[in-house]
Structure formats: structure tokens, C-alpha cells
């Protein structure tokens, strides 16, 4: 991605504002971990199976298929790991001199990250249910060493999108139910990156910029659940995209040999964070009393994220940044097996395509195509209580990073590659009343 500011200060202020959306715009940083049983089957069939209260997130129409009122709490512990390789990145200063950009190759920037969820569902009549869900739907937290070779692209990212979802479901007939919910979202971001010194790339001479911003906004979701036969169920679900206008403060410290200033530049600014529309179609088929097969296709509308318009109270910070994301999809297949009345076993596989492209892939989102392998189990010690467990291994494919970052003092050309993996452990409790 190329950024052409009119002045070094403009780059320092505009870059972190513009990069705020880029911290989540990849399939991997849409957080699917919204239910423990779903994780155990790689989220296959989630819009159709309606086996517990987490259906509030995946298809609220499924509440009408629950056996009784239910409260559910779960937690996922994510162990992400990413490595980035430098394949000859360079810096060309204003005098035309080209120097290598060196530094550490990005030791894993991620710490183990907890991700909790909560759901409540209760019937109000024979045909009407109310529910509520709480979870973090998008997010990333990572920090590189200060001498990271791609420090002019990113050093620190901390972004969370919290979603509160009051929902309703209505059973229209014996075979058809509809449902919907309001998505009340809070987005919060902290971003940090380095500014290159005009003499050359040196961590001791670099400047730095930092952004903190947040936003509240509202979306919605709608679903339908159809029993095609006594053993086969179809689920359809749509979640609207939400555009957050992140408003915050950018703090800029100039490089050692940059334009002289009396102190750090502090400016207010805003940039849109466009989260995608998400549409899912799922099938659940019960082969016999023990085996259930599950299938799901999910589509993500990332293509509307083609550029970011940055607005600021600093006139030099006005900027438009190209993004060039593509639509993506995920395809999952899984199964459940009722071992006995006390135990249910499950498993699944998912392929999740990244929307990022080589020429615009940032080290803030070192994403690639993802393959999920998942296992899970539920223990039912009584008719009212269930304990859910899940594990997923997510392989992130190796992808190229070819980025251009332009400043008045010179141009940084990044050439490298990235790959990663994620291990996920989940546990939850469900209580029916």
C-alpha cells in the first residue's frame, strides 16, 4: 500500500488513523469463537443446528428449537503465533541513496488471549422467545520489538469490537421460525508504528506515532430456520456490516533528524472502520439416533473496503489510503455423535479464505488462508447442566508481503513473507431452567 503525504507530519498523523481499520480486515481477525460447541465442529452447521443458546449469534431463529430456557457462559483461550521474514526490504532517501532496512524478523507478537461469551434465551409464549448475547466479534492484540524490520508499517496493535445483541425469535409454523437481533457495538483501538529518519533506517533515530480512538455504532441481523424434513434442517442468516467512525488522538514524535518541532504533534482525527456484511447458509441432517452431519457456507463482504478517507483538525493530515480487499468465504463440514446420554462428541474441518492481497497485506494483519481442524465434547451430568469442551488447530498459510510506505524523507519498500498458526482451547457451562 502506498501512502503519499504532503509532509512528514501528514504521514505521521494520517498513517495510524488510516491503519485503524486494517487491523481487523482479514478473515482471521473476524473472531468466529462465539460458542464452545461450535468450535468443536469448526463452526459447521451453526446457522441450522440450534443445539444451545449460542444460536443467538449464529441464527437467533434457532431459539425456538431449544428444549427450555437456557443461560450459557463460555471462554476461549487463543494461542496465536506468527512469524515474518525479511526478504530484502529497503529504504530510499530523498537523495536517491538506497539502504537496507534491517532488524529483528518479528518474534511472535501475540500473547495468549482470552475471549469470553455469554448467552441467555427464554420463551415468552409457545411461539415467541427472547434472548441476549455478549461477545467480541473482531479483535487483535499484538506488539513487535522496537527494532522489528517492518516497524514503519506496525509496532503495536490493540483492537476490540464488543457486541451486545438483544434478540427475538418467532415460530411461524411447525417447520418455520424467524428471528433477528440488534447489534450494539463498541470499537476501541490503540495503534503504534515508527517513522523513518531521513538519514536512514535506524531504531535509535526513528520517530513514532500512536493513535487511540473509539466508537459506538449499531447494526442488525436476521435469520430463518426451516425443517425441510423431520431429519433435515436449513438455516439462513444475515448480519449487516457496521461502519464505525473511530474518533481519537494521534501523538507524533518526529525522527531525530526530521523537521524541527517544539514538541510532539498532537492532533484529533477520525477514520471509518468498515466491518463486513456476513451471510451464512447451513444444513443439519440427522442420519440416525446417534449421527448428525453438518455443513455451512459463510460469505464476507470485504470488497466495500477499497479506501480510507482520513479527516483531521490538522490540515496536513487529510488523506485517502487504498486498501483493495476482496470478498472472502469460509466452508465448514462437521459431525456430532451421541455416545450415550451423558456424552456427545463432535468434530469438523473448515477452510477460511483471507481477503488480503500481497500488495496490500500489512504486518498488522499478517493473514493467510486458514484451515481449521477441530474436536469437542459435551458432558451432561444432569438434565439441566452441560459442560462443553473444544479444541481447534488453525493453520495459516504462508503469504507474501510487498508494501510501499512513502514519506517526504524517502520511501520504504517492504519485501517479505508471513505464516502462522493458532491453537484454541474452549470451555463452557450451560444451565437449562
UniProtKB/TrEMBL annotation:
One term under GO cellular component: cell outer membrane
SUPFAM superfamilies, per the entry: Porins
Gene Ontology molecular functions: long-chain fatty acid transporting porin activity
UniProt keyword terms in alphabetical order: Cell outer membrane, Membrane, Signal, Transmembrane, Transmembrane beta strand
Coiled coil: none
InterPro entries: OMPP1/FadL/TodX (IPR005017)
Entry-linked Pfam families: Toluene_X
Region called Disordered, residue ranges: 82-110
Compartments where found: Cell outer membrane
Signal sequence coordinates: 1-26
Membrane topology: Multi-pass membrane protein
Composition-biased stretches (Polar residues): 82-98
Entry similarity comment: Belongs to the OmpP1/FadL family.
Protein name per its UniProtKB record: Aromatic hydrocarbon degradation protein
Organism name: Thioalkalivibrio halophilus
